[in-house]
Amino acid sequence: MPRSTDAMMGAKPKNLKKAASRILADFRPLLGVFIFVIIILLASAALSVVIPVLLGAFVNNFKNLATKVEGVYQVDWPEVFKQVIIMLSFYVGSALFIWLADWIVVKISADYAFDIRAKIKAKLDRLPLSYFDKNTYGEILSRGTNDVDNISRHMSSVINQTIIAVSMFLGTVIAMFITSWQLALVAIAILPFTILFTVLIAVNAQKEFKKYRSHLGKLNAITEENFSGFKVVKLFNKEKDVAAAFEGVNEIMMKADWKSQWLSGFIFPTMRFIGNLGFIGVSVVGGLLQDPGNMVAFFLFLQMFQQPFQQIGQISSIIQSVLASGERIYNLLDEEEMESEEAGALSTEDAIKGEIVFDNVEFSYSPDKPLIQNFNLKVNTGDSIAIVGPTGAGKTTIVNLIMRFYEVNSGRILLDGVNIRDYQRATLRGAIGMVLQDTWLFADSIRENIRYGRSDATDAEIEEAAKQAHADHFIKTLPGGYNFVLNEDGTNISQGQRQLITIARAIVSKPKILILDEATSSVDTRTELAIQDAMNKMMIGKTSFIIAHRLSTIKNAKVIIVMQKGQIVEIGNHQQLLANNGFYAELYNAQFSGRNPLAEPEQESDNSEAKAAV
Fold first, then answer.
1. Rounded (5°) CA angle 272-276-280
2. Pick from 175, 159, 47, 43: which is nearest to 108 by CA?
3. Alpha-carbon gap, residue 254 to 242, rounded angstroms
4. What CATH number is attached to the domain comprising 465?
5. What is the pLDDT of residues 360-393, one digit of tens each?
6. Which domain holds residue 489?
């Protein structure tokens, strides 16, 4: 169920400067393209700045284009049209340059989103399982989807408007001083107030944007978990509690979004108010010192002078949102990865036989909560090893260590005399077939779900595996048989049927080592016996690890290991352990008498193998 708030929200302090530098670093290979974009946007700004100069000159010279003959003004229309066309061409040229820049940057943004998603996917493949224990799936998905899309959608407007705003500001200031230094000083006088209000509003809006992006991940996590556990929510009548939790986070998001947008919305009217003060000042001074043409040009300059601050004000909220998303993405990309493969690690399964040795292995999920301590065990090739014990004893942890889902803290695990660290993870796991209590199926046909165990398996091999797993009969009763398409997680068939399919998937993979973690927990007794018979045949010649709570299913195991608190407390076959009349005998008899064999209930760790099971 839902994890802690700290895990969802992240404990690291925010560092938007670092996020900005990381985003810029990702775009560094495209520096040449950005220089080209800057050049064409500078050209666009230059054309925009020249237009008021042309218009001012046109107003001042209009009297020369209109002469009074016999009381009637005659206008030199060809010259008027010529000057108007020149001004229009400047407008069109400026717009075309902006369009071209938008097209280039939008393409760059789409490529960035593609690349960053690929990086996130590759990063997730390299992260240890401990990361997924501490972070909800909804939070992780939010970073790979919402945050990436947020950057991609807004990158073009951030880049283009920022470049245009800066170039427009500089060009307008230069043009104003050339036109009239007195009026330029009046316009510049309002600049400190513009900057002060923009910064004050942006800083306060930034806090709310950060809060919104963080809680968006938390809301996704709550939604994903509650839809995944929908039946459990219904079973325990937790609809009101779930709705209350959702509403609480949703309300925080709503307030953060409202405050950020409301604060950002202050920028535009504030700029308009300060800009109007500038118009008044220019009107008063210009009316005393300037001719009409210069006044017209300067009014346009003043509007263009204010426009960059209005643009920056409008995109400041977008910039803050983009940086908040970038920070969350790069925090994920900076997470500590699994240990890298050893140089020259073995990459072939051909030589693997199945002898496994635990040599003084120690492991814990948390440094302050020991679990596996001084664990020693030798399993010969072809042996069937059953592991039993109370919940939290470390049973599933042992097989997780064999699979290298987690690395041992000390000691070593040998496979055929070779440290499992000296095998590539893909090679090690390719030699192991694993059937879990929690089934996992994907939205595709039953045939492809079974073939997932071995991609080159033929249809005949798939059907043979299904027969051995006693799944063939029920599969043929479904519409389309082996082509029947399962829903996500296989929810359109029963839990027991899902487990049969996962067993068939393990059979078709032809593993050299077999791990069965409560593999028959969801089937009826009759089917369990039939599956057990198929498993016994499949385990011939293979090293097998069987984790089971129903002790009747492991009576025929060659060796039974009894674990308690991370250590082996008994070892032997079924008859020997019953004769010893120890902890195993108590567990076995308790399943028929109903008596609790534990005098003192075992305190389970927060990081028990039940949590860490894959």
1. 175
2. 159
3. 18
4. 3.40.50.300
5. 999 988 888 888 888 888 988 888 888 888 877 8
6. 437-510
